[in-house]
Amino acid sequence: QVQLVESGGGSVQAGGSLRLSCTASGAWGTQNLMSWFREAPGKEREPVAAITIYRPYYVDSVKGRFTISQDNAKNTIYLQMDSLKPEDTAMYYCATRAIRNNVPWYRPNEYSTWGQGTQVTVSS
Fold first, then answer.
1. Half-sphere exposure of 73 toward its Cβ, with a 13 Å CA cutoff?
2. Predicted confidence (pLDDT) per residue in 53-62, tens digit
3. What pairing do the DSSP bridges indicate for beta strands 76-81 and 66-71?
4. Percentage of the chain surpassing pLDDT 90?
5. How many whole angstroms from its chain centre is CA 119?
6. Burial class (CB within 10 angstroms; exposed 0-12, middle 13-18, buried 19+) of 27
7. DSSP 40-75
8. What is the pLDDT of residues 38-78, one digit of tens each?
């Protein structure tokens, strides 16, 4: 069983930066898909970014501002968030699953393993 632990959230002003971390433990393999989702109050959980050993993925709203990376030696992925906006305010969750062809990375219902979340608050 895989466990995920996120860290790095906090409060920043618009235009600032934060780096989130997600460390996996247990039966986790580097072949997995690792993803970030976020959920703002009153809104549905939405995708942010994902990474496999082949490539990263981003939603349009964060392209050019967020960078996802992976350190396999540490079983950790990172989400570097720059030029933050108030609309980025949300609880950010890390999730993982096996890579499956024809199953898009951005569907949260396809993931069974989630971290506890880390809060990101961006003030204007």
1. 0
2. 889 999 999 9
3. antiparallel
4. 83
5. 12
6. exposed
7. -TTS--EEEEEE-SS-EEE-GGGTTTEEEEEEGGGT
8. 999 999 999 999 999 889 999 999 999 999 999 988 999 99
